[in-house]
Amino acid sequence: MIVLNGLKSCDTCRKAKAWLASEGIEARFHDVRADGLDVARLEHWIAVLGREVLINRRGTTWRGLGEVERAVDDDAAAVALMLAHPAIIKRPVFEIGDKVLIGFNDDVRAALSEI
Predict the structure, then answer these.
(1) CATH for 2-113, among 3.40.470.10, 2.40.50.100, 3.40.30.10, 3.40.50.1000?
(2) Which partner for 13 in 6, 20, 63, 115 could form a disulfide, CB atoms 3.0-4.6 Å apart?
(3) pTM > 0.85: yes or no
(4) Per-residue b/e over 40-66, b at no fewer than 16 CB within 10 Å?
């Protein structure tokens, strides 16, 4: 089963959820803020995607951080930042077994359709 990780208030996550339903693709929604995250999951995402891909540096959460919090120079710092501020994670993040996809562009939709 696909796990769609995101925020219930995120427009892109809502679009992804609706698209999955319209395509008949079964998925479980995991709200990274309300349902929480764990270190192992974040470490896996970083191993697959890289920390630079996961951190949204264009959003309001990033802009609201101080210089010290923005100093993400290793994976441990990235995990700590994402645990403290789940909204900093680019969304949505799809988990399909050990495979991880991020975003909701044509390439991601194509990959999801093949499952």
Answers:
(1) 3.40.30.10
(2) 6
(3) yes
(4) ebbeebbebeebeebbeeeeebbeebe
